[in-house]
Design a protein that fits this description.
The protein has about 160 residues and is an alpha+beta fold. The protein has helices at about 10-20, 30-35, 40-50, 80-95, 120-130; strands spanning about 70-75, 95-100, 110-115, 135-140. It is built from 5 helices and 4 strands, in the order H-H-H-E-H-E-E-H-E. Helix 2 (about 30-35) crosses helix 3 (about 40-50).
Length: about 160
C-alpha cells in the first residue's frame, strides 16, 4: 500500500500539475520545473521515480477518436485463465487499445478498441478469437459518449 512518506510536497504538487495536463510548449517539463522551483532534470527524475513506485502508471495524451475519424467501442470477452496473460498481451499490443481490464464474471476481459474502419476491427477480433480459441467476444459499439474528468487532489485534505 502506498504510504504518505513515499511522496513529498513537491511530488504531490507535481502529480496535481500532471493531472491538469502538460503545458503545450516546446519544453513542457521545463515549464513544470519553473512552476515548482526545481530543475527540469529533477522533474524527469521525479516522474521516473513515481512511475517505478507505481504511483504514476501512464503519462500520455487523451484524444477524441471520433473527431479523428476512428470508431471506438468497448469489447467484452470470456478468456480462460490459462491463456489470459497471452491474450492480454495480444490485445494490449494493438495501437487502438487504450484500456484493458480483468473483471470477475462471465466476461472477464474488457477493453476499449478504436479502429479506422469496421474491417480493421473485425480482422483484429477474429484473430483474437482464433489465436486463443475464444467463443465469447462481444463488441459493444458506442451509442453515446461519456467523458469524466477525474482529479485526485494530492495536496488537499
Amino acid at each position: 500500500m502506498l504510504q504518505e512518506r513515499d511522496m513529498d510536497a513537491v511530488d504531490r504538487k507535481l502529480i496535481n500539475l500532471l493531472q491538469e495536463g502538460l503545458p503545450l510548449e516546446k519544453n513542457p517539463f521545463g515549464a513544470l520545473a519553473a512552476s515548482l522551483g526545481i530543475s527540469r532534470e529533477e522533474i524527469v527524475e521525479r516522474i521516473g521515480a513515481l512511475r517505478r513506485k507505481g504511483i504514476v502508471r501512464r503519462l500520455g495524451g487523451v484524444f477524441d477518436s471520433l473527431a479523428m475519424g476512428y470508431s471506438s467501442m468497448l469489447v467484452g470477452a470470456r478468456v480462460p485463465e490459462g491463456v489470459f496473460g497471452d491474450a492480454a498481451r495480444f490485445v494490449n499490443a494493438h495501437p487502438g487499445v487504450t484500456h484493458n481490464y480483468r473483471r470477475s464474471g462471465f466476461l472477464n476481459m474488457w477493453f476499449t478498441l478504436s479502429t479506422v474502419c469496421d474491417e480493421e476491427r473485425d480482422v483484429f477480433l477474429e484473430e483474437l478469437r482464433r489465436r486463443f480459441g475464444l467463443t465469447h467476444v462481444f463488441p459493444f459499439p458506442r451509442v453515446r459518449s461519456f467523458k469524466l474528468r477525474v482529479f485526485f487532489d494530492m495536496e488537499g485534505a
